[in-house]
Write a structure and sequence with these properties.
The structure is a single chain. The protein has two domains: 161 residues, serine acetyltransferase, domain 1; 108 residues, UDP N-Acetylglucosamine Acyltransferase, domain 1 (3 Solenoid). It is globular, with a radius of gyration of 19 Å. The strands form three sheets. It has a six-stranded mixed β-sheet with strand order 3-6-9-12-14-15. A five-stranded parallel β-sheet has the order 1-4-7-10-13. A four-stranded parallel β-sheet has the order 2-5-8-11, with no helix packed on it. It contains ten helices and 15 strands. The protein is α/β, with parallel strands linked by helices.
């Protein structure tokens, strides 16, 4: 996370970039995105409408994100304005959605070696767009708008190739790498700082009702194609290898692999450097 923090500088409000001095410190991530959009505009002028409409003509990071995601989700039945209005209602009632959005962007830039700029997940990565869509659907689900929530689940499945039940609970700092084929069941829980790769299933066994889906604890990573089935726990900082089928709980800090998954390694105690990185990440989540 120190490398991510190093790309952002919190700049004292001077009235630049359309933000009045009275607002004090400016949003460093928003300033960085605008800078990257201007640079991208200069290098790819044929994409000018994308950069201008999605970022440069938007007043805030939240407005820009909601516009970009709604532009991908809209269709002839449910238009851009309806989806943006829903995002605005959700973030007004639950400001944590805006904080989570920022932390999710940082998580992608920090963990994805193929991602060099903040503008990349913001404009292009369907995993980032899918998790923000889920955050809206989750809010709608718990505020008596379940049909709208289910519509967004269905639409996200069509557009982003992810199928996340609106009731599933996600923390912040979520990285859906590639995202294609991700399936998450109704009673699943995914805590902070989790990485889920493509074709992961957090599903049920088909034999249970009620609380029947996995609980993935903080910092875990689930490899591509892994199937985690049943009301079991993937412990904090655990690793599930690609293609594994997990039918039993996995202890914190361990790595499992195979069909069915078996223990491969146990993690060493965290180093001082790892602890410092975690603390910086927590700080980032609340200051950006």
């Amino acid at each position: 996370m120190r490398s991510t923090l190093g790309r952002l500088t919190v700049i004292a409000g001077t009235g630049g970039d359309g933000v009045p001095p009275s607002e004090g410190f400016l949003d460093a991530l928003w300033l960085r995105l605008r800078q990257e959009a201007r640079e991208a505009y200069a290098h790819a002028p044929m994409l000018a409408p994308l950069f201008v409409e999605s970022i440069l003509n938007q007043p805030t990071l939240e407005a820009a994100a909601f516009h970009r995601i709604a532009a991908r989700l809209k269709n002839d039945l449910v238009g851009l304005g309806i989806i943006i209005d829903a995002f605005n209602r959700a973030v007004e009632a639950m400001p944590e959605i805006a904080q989570d959005l920022r932390t999710d962007i940082a998580a992608v830039v920090e963990r994805d070696p193929a991602c060099a700029r903040f503008i990349e997940p913001f404009l292009y990565f369907k995993g980032f767009h899918a998790i923000q869509t889920h955050r809206l659907a989750h809010w709608l689900w718990h505020h008596d708008e379940r049909d709208f929530a289910l519509y967004l689940q269905s639409r996200s499945s069509d557009v982003f190739q992810t199928d996340i039940h609106p009731a599933a609970r996600f923390g912040r700092g979520i990285f859906l790498d590639h995202a294609t084929g991700l399936v998450v069941g109704e009673t699943a829980v995914v805590e902070n700082d989790v990485c889920l790769l493509q074709n992961v299933t957090l599903g049920g066994t088909g034999k249970d009702s009620g609380d029947r889906h996995p609980k993935v604890r903080q910092g875990a990573m689930i490899g591509a194609g892994a199937k985690i089935l049943g009301n079991i726990e993937i412990g904090a900082s655990a690793r599930v290898a690609a293609g594994s089928v997990v039918l039993r709980s996995v202890e914190a800090g361990t790595t499992v692999a195979g069909v069915p998954a078996k223990l491969i390694t146990r993690a060493a105690a965290p180093t001082e450097d790892q602890i410092l990185n975690d603390l910086l990440y927590e700080s980032f989540a609340y200051t950006i």
